[in-house]
TrEMBL record:
Name of the protein in question: AAA family ATPase
Domain ATPase AAA-type core per the UniProt entry, residue ranges: 270-340
Transmembrane segments: none
Lineage: Bacteria, Pseudomonadati, Pseudomonadota, Alphaproteobacteria, Hyphomicrobiales
Gene Ontology terms: biological process: DNA synthesis involved in DNA repair; double-strand break repair
Record-linked Pfam families: AAA_21, DUF2813
Length: 376
């Protein structure tokens, strides 16, 4: 289930923007232009699949902070609108999911500033025309069951819930469930803590870890899985050695917990444990765990992965992004034009430059309608 396009309107600095996406998407720009808002808007699709959309918006300041604060057309609904299109590479079917979030009405059973999911739709195009698989207005949801019949879901949806999460987890609506499962598996890595108490520096429970958690807490288990279960760390060792001056990753056989360390060329008889490593070293290792794990999610999103990294580490980071893109989609938001160029050299993905025009986040060359010239 591959993401092919994405649009957002009315969200923070995103007045209206639409993006076509390939296997690798790179967005580069200065501070304050709204790159992180693009990343966050994409993350809201995953929140819809997980049923945490209202909580995510409330956590970033509520609808007052989430809504576009610039000029609007008269009579236009005050809403955040997220729209995503997918293709199932196995069946070639196209999926389109749209969700609209707004403010509660003056008289409401919910909380005064709680985000309300107003409308949701899911359509699938596998033949001559799209077929509506799910539609929601307010608390009422209609969907097509396993026999293709359009039925009303017996349970009313709360204002803070998404129908994608509720119906997708019920087992009664196959297409809704397929999309929910695909999107809920995405991973967003927007900065690993590197302080002394950070999770990435701690031992992890010795359980098989096919992919890295979003907070990096199972990093040691990810490395142990690669070293002792998959028994293949050739690419991982090469990237770490190139980035960290010939350092070697040490991963002992786990006991109750998994651990790791680095052996540095100048001190070959000693293993430096995570607590002794620099912020840049531990951050690079966390990115390696995210991009080179045993199994990758269907989409990996990285927000400013170059932070705290020495410039000499960027070629290896670009190598890992390119290798990951052979197995999954990768979305990168970065300040670094050098990293963007390195990724382009390895993948052919042209970086899109994010700018701010009259308060709105845009892509350089994008029309005022939010479309790129090729879309015309």
């Amino acid at each position: 289930m591959r993401l092919t396009s994405f649009s957002a309107a009315g969200y923070r600095s995103l007045r209206s923007i639409r993006l076509d996406l390939g296997q690798v998407s790179v967005f580069v720009g200065e501070n304050g232009v709204g790159k992180s808002n693009l990343y966050r808007a994409l993350q809201l699709i995953k929140a819809s699949a997980e049923g945490t959309l209202a909580r995510e918006i409330a956590g970033e300041g509520g609808m007052g902070s989430a809504l576009w604060s610039g000029k609007r057309r008269t009579g236009q609904p005050v809403r955040v609108i997220i729209d995503a299109h997918f293709v199932d590479d196995e069946t070639a079917a196209g999926y389109a999911y749209k969700v609209e979030i707004g403010l509660p009405p003056p008289v409401s059973a919910g909380f005064a500033f709680e985000p309300h999911v107003k409308e949701e739709t899911l359509t699938v195009e596998a033949g001559r025309r799209p077929v509506e698989m799910m539609t929601r207005k307010g608390p009422v949801v209609f969907a097509r069951d396993g026999d293709g019949r359009r039925v009303e879901h017996p349970e009313r949806v709360l204002n803070s819930e998404t129908a994608l999460a509720l119906l997708g987890g019920s087992g009664r609506y196959p297409e809704v469930g397929d999309l929910r499962a695909a999107v809920a598996g995405w991973r967003f890595y927007h900065g690993f803590r590197t302080d002394a108490d950070s999770l990435v520096r701690r031992p992890a429970l010795a359980t098989t870890a096919p992919m890295l958690d979003e907070d990096g807490a199972n990093l040691a288990a990810v490395f142990a899985t690669l070293r002792h279960i998959r028994e293949d760390t050739v690419d991982l060792d090469r990237c770490i050695g190139d980035a960290l001056g010939g350092a070697q990753l040490d991963v002992p056989v786990p006991g109750e917990t998994a651990t790791f360390g680095l052996v540095l060329p100048e001190f070959p008889q000693r293993v430096f444990r995570p607590q002794e490593l620099s912020d840049g070293q531990i951050r690079f290792l966390a990115l390696a765990g995210a991009l080179m794990s045993y199994r990758l999610p269907r989409l990996i999103a990285l927000n400013e992965p170059e932070a705290s990294l020495h410039v000499r580490m960027l070629p290896s980071l670009a190598d890992m992004i390119a290798r990951a893109a052979e197995r999954t989609q990768v979305w990168v938001v970065t300040h670094s034009r050098e990293l963007a160029d390195l990724v382009h050299d390895r993948t052919g993905a042209r970086a899109l430059t994010v700018i701010r025009v009259e308060g709105a986040t845009m892509i350089e060359g994008m029309r005022s309608t939010g479309l790129m010239p090729d879309d015309d």
